[in-house]
Amino acid sequence: MELLNDLIQINRERIAEYEKAARETAGINADLSCLFETMAEESRTYINDLLNIWIEEGAKAEIPDGLAIGGKVYRSWMSWKNSSGKKGNRAILTSCKYGEGAIQKVYEEVLSGNAALPAWLRKLLADQKSHLKLSHDKINREQLWYATYNKIGRA
Q1: Are 52 and 63 within 8 A, CB to CB?
Q2: Domains defined for the chain, CATH in brackets
Q3: Which of 82, 79, 110, 90 is closest to 6 using CA atoms?
Q4: Lower CB count within 10 Å: N or C terminus of the chain?
């Protein structure tokens, strides 16, 4: 159950960071603000999925205790969380790109480092990781666009 708790917490932090990014870009860039709100909603869905497992399967104790996210990966996530106070669209996107990379590492560590995961839980987490990868790619495209746009604008 510790594993689920860690993933729920990381998704809560992801929501908080994207809500913050949406507020910072609201009124300045509606497209980015909408993208950030979508990312936050995505994590709300993941939390609901994980909470349902917690409720349904927790009582059955099918998830072995002691499964957890490795400290190094978790610290990487927290490093992103603590550095995301930068301003400006490009800086926000750069921070989000780092955060999306960190969450990919978290899910990868969970999937590769916990052989005792039940198959049904492994599938759910792999699906979440796959969807998060799509989000990572969206953020990457936006960040590259802003990097290119700013270079052209200064030329």
Answers
A1: no
A2: 2-154 (1.20.1260.10)
A3: 110
A4: C
In whole angstroms, what is the distance from residue 91 CA to residue 152 CA? 17
Q: How far apart are CA 75 and CA 81, in angstroms?
A: 10
pLDDT tens-digit map of 21-50: 999 899 888 999 999 999 999 999 999 999
Tokens describing residue 37: 């709100």
Q: What is the Cα–Cα distance from 87 to 4, expressed in whole angstroms?
A: 32
How far apart are alpha carbons 125 and 122 in whole angstroms? Answer: 5
74 close to 9: Cβ distance less than 8 angstroms = no
Which tokens belong to 51?
Answer: 């909470």
Q: Cβ of 72: how many Cβ atoms within 10 Å? A: 9
Per-residue pLDDT reduced to its tens digit, 101-149 = 989 988 998 898 877 888 889 999 999 999 999 999 999 999 898 888 7
